[in-house]
């Protein structure tokens, strides 16, 4: 079962749904349960019900996918292995929200086009850590690093002039036009594992911040070390909604894991357990 219902505002409901399916013997993949991205260090109130469901019904659960999951776990860890020394691992999502046709999320959740005194729910203190902290902890565990703490940083910029988007209308001058925040894993007193988001409603806002290569969006991994390594992945889909490509890769990671999970023992799995596999049977446009 691919569980695609949101867990943002109903984590208890999402957990109950998933545990019920696992207890019925289903293999479940989902992006909805943020605490279980690093399931080994998840709070007992999230981990224990799933383990009990696995014992009861013999199902399995794999949680990954946000922004997308591979960009904040398997890709940076793979790239880190190419370096002789690693000082900082930085995972970036750089995105033009004018291509994201979810007006309520863009305006209310993220705050684009709202007055600068408005406090968007996604940027409330501790919310970024709630969403991306599990991926920070998962990467630290894979690297054998001990986290001192997880910190957050936040910058916001106003639009200098009004802009009009294709599907969401006008965003007025002086309102929020760009956001940049980091979730930092602190190791030895320094930010060593960083998940960073740079989002705009128009390229004219905060032009000095990182920009995607194609203007729409990209995911980037930067390993500061010897040598310095930078990998940028831009996934675009056909048609007018170009942002769909990134979402499709997140889905691909989850759906592509199902066969492996079916063959594996029942259990609770994370991105370090489930391999990212070749696209068997899809070459030439064919789908299994």
Please give a structural write-up:
The chain is of the alpha/beta class and 288 residues long. It has 2 domains: 96 residues, no CATH class; 172 residues, no CATH class. Helices cover 26% and strands 27% of the residues. The chain is built from 7 helices and 11 strands. The chain has a 6-stranded mixed beta sheet, covered by helices on one side. Strand 5 and strand 6 form a beta hairpin. The radius of gyration is 19 Å and the shape is globular. The chain starts with 10 loop residues before the first helix and ends in a 19-residue tail after the last strand. 39% of the residues are buried.
Q: State the secondary-structure class.
A: alpha/beta
Largest sheet strand order: 4-7-8-3-9-10
What is the 3D shape?
globular
Per DSSP E runs of 2 or more residues, the count of β-strands stands at 11
H/E series: HEHEHEHHEEEEEEEHHE
Overall mean pLDDT score?
92
Report helical residue fraction.
Answer: 25-40%
The amount of beta strand, in percent, is 25-35%
Largest sheet: 6 strands, mixed
Report Rg. Answer: 19 Å
Distance from N terminus to C terminus (CA atoms, Å) equals: 17 Å
The tally of domains stands at 2
Number of helices: 7
Give the gist of this structure.
With 288 residues, this protein is of the alpha/beta class. The chain has helices spanning 11-23, 44-57, 74-80, 103-109, 127-143, 244-255, 258-263; strands at residues 27-30, 60-63, 85-96, 149-158, 163-165, 169-171, 176-187, 190-200, 217-226, 229-233, 267-269.
Helix-strand layout with pairing:
Blueprint: H1 11-23, E1 27-30, H2 44-57, E2 60-63, H3 74-80, E3 85-96, H4 103-109, H5 127-143, E4 149-158, E5 163-165, E6 169-171, E7 176-187, E8 190-200, E9 217-226, E10 229-233, H6 244-255, H7 258-263, E11 267-269
Helix pairs in contact: 1-2
